[in-house]
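Hello forum,

I keep getting stuck at the same step: I have a sequence, I want structure tokens, and every attempt I make locally crashes halfway through. Rather than fight my setup again tonight, could one of you with a working pipeline run this one for me? It's a single chain of 539 residues.
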Amino acid sequence: MIVIRLSVPIILLLLPLVARAQLVGDLIHDAVELETARTSEQGKTVLWSYASVAIDSAFTGVALQGLTSSDTLHGSVRLEDGGQWGEWQTLYIVRSATDEAFLAAWRSVEVQRASRFELRFAVDTGHEVTILLAGTFDARKDAPNTEAPQQGDTYQSGDVITAPRLYTRRDWGAEPFRGTPIALNRPDYRFMTLHHTAGFGAVTLAQGLDQVKRIQDFHQNGRGWSDIGYQFLMDQEGRLYQGRPFLNRSVPFSLGPPLAHGAHVGGANTGNIGVSLMGCYHPPEGGNCRDAMTPAAIDSLLVTFAFLAERYGVSPQLMRGHRDFSSTACPGDNNYMQLPSFREQVAELLTTGNAPLGQAAMHARTDSTGVVVVRWAFLEDLGIEEYSVMRKMGEQVVTLTTSDEVADGRIADLASAGHNEYLLVARGNRNREQILASVEIDVHNPGRYVLARSFPNPASREAVIRYYLPAPGVVTLRIYDVNGREVSRLEESYREEEQWHTTVVDTSSLPSGVYYYQLHLEGFVETLHRDASPLVVIR
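Reply #2:
Ran it on my machine without issues. Output:
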């Protein structure tokens, strides 16, 4: 028998049975139930033993995933055949660099028909060993790498999505591929599948490089695969790492080099691009699970899937989670529930692109009358064909101005009280849209009588008169010339309190000159307020 020592850690925490078949689920063919652990102490060491229930099918190896807080961990396995236990064989163990997770495996070149197996782990006194999932695998069922590499595979460039930064196999010190890689697209790329490692989290670059190396170690030396199972991996801050090698290394990543067949979704790996998030996103699996992806990781994930969709011709609607192909909690409830939104955002990104159309800055200020002055400046033009300035309040979006002349500008806007957001939206070729700049501002009600200055002022065609009432009453609004003669009676009606009211004045028939508009508010028994303000008309 050939015994291999295991040392790649895949991440899993204290997960219930329903969620256990995740990372190890990619490595085993049959899950096996374990009996209650037995313990015994030997000096400063405690032995944890787990015996399996009866095994029905032949196998060539055993793999498991577990947790321990002990600094030392040694493991072994033995098989029962015909009522007799065999010798203890050393487990190959790989531990996570950042949490308590570990992977362990033993494999043989011979087919085993044992009826049971027993696991034994030695740890420091006072520490436990928890087995999350154990099972057997049969290397005869693994897809062989028998096809010749397809160095001439076609690839497609794109001008909408800029490739994310990729940390290559050289960066994380990958071991060589064992054997000859075969093409992933036979004949087409079919799916993009999201995973999580349910452990083995990584926040920093150093942790990410280390964890990818450990995962490859276990996949190659524990499980006996030719290489790491995923095409790509991503840490918890959104850094992207290369998994399996590219078939044509002369093609830069930005152009989408042909990908190698992986081992991440049992029975559905052909044409399926696997991206695994390093970390745990299934809260029932223990306290080390993260509740949600970071904003940086989400942004990076969307760009990555958009890039893969554009370069390899896979529709965003064919973005899947691991559980869509097999019985597993992967990629975790928190990630899986976001997949519909991810598909929509990836599809939108393929239209808007992440290649910048330009750069801009915005500034906004308001006065007591609710008039917001918005200014913008273009810092760089990389293909802007048109731009718009928009106001967003809640779900309501209003376009304030649109121009095909890329120039700095300003606009005065009559905004409603509340939280307002102003957006500078650029459009490029193929109707690509990007938000180049935005600014948020809160507009408050004044809490007193206000007759605002007409807008615009001077006016040529029409002017807007606004007033705020802290109390209700009958409003009379009139326009007078400089000699005090009434020119127009605009309004005479009851108005509610604590809100702005607006009246539009048609000034097209008025000669150029200075006029005054007067507001008179009558309550039930007295005049509540009277005010006037100038209005300039020009032709």
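The longest helix spans residues 205-222. If your local run keeps crashing, start a new thread with the error log.
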